[in-house]
Amino acid sequence: MDKKKCDICQKMFSESELISGHGIDHGIEKIIQKDFPEWDDYKQICKNDFHIYQAKYISSIIDEETGRVKELNDAVLHSITDNETIAENVNQSIKEKMKMGDAISDKVASFGGSWKFIIFFFVVLFSWIIINSIVLLQKPFDPYPFILMNLILSCIAAIQAPIIMMSQNRQEKKDRLRSENDYKVNLKSEIEIRTLHEKVDHLLLDQWSRMMKIQEMQIEMLEEIKEKIR
Fold first, then answer.
1. 81-113 pLDDT, tens per residue?
2. Residue-number span of the structural domain to which 46 is assigned
3. Total structural domains in the chain?
4. Can you tell me the distance from the alpha carbon of 25 to that of 89, in angstroms, rounded to the nearest whole number?
5. 121 and 165 share a domain?
6. Measured distance CA(204)–CA(198) in Å, rounded
7. What's the rounded Cα separation, in Å, for the pair 113 and 161?
8. How far apart are CA 134 and CA 173, in angstroms?
9. Both 56 and 152 in a single domain?
């Protein structure tokens, strides 16, 4: 039987013990070319040397996969630690920009919409009526029908209305800023979740393809072992 030389170990083998470069995986060929730059598809390699380079290729895949997982974990941690937080305290930021008039209007609106104001209002109102009807019966400063009291009440209502509107406008602005802040936080969360999903899907697909390559090589090695046993 004619024997041919292995282009790796330079030993003589039968044709059945040699593998042509055409039937070798490109990943294994790249590893062979690192040691033998002149390697091409027309060269031949014995099965023993092929198994050595096949094992190196599998080891390189595993090492690369381990490194990719580590890089992915580092990238996720880096993006989480370096990104600035979007959430902010809207109440605090508006409070820092408030002027004295804005603070006064808020306090007036808060007091005007409370039970304290209602109780205080009725106490003053009844006191006014009692003083002008009973205590100062001879010379009341505001006799019935209490025109001065009606004038004061009208002035209070005229002043209180725009003050409350000012406070409501500022509250509307605060609600708008809070809604914008919530939108930005939700948008960032959605983007980060999508990014993580894409990274996990890419990682799973990549791992699956690499595992399939390893499994194919293991099947080839098992078939060769079976042939040797026979």
1. 555 554 555 556 555 566 777 777 777 777 777
2. 3-62
3. 2
4. 59
5. yes
6. 10
7. 12
8. 50
9. no
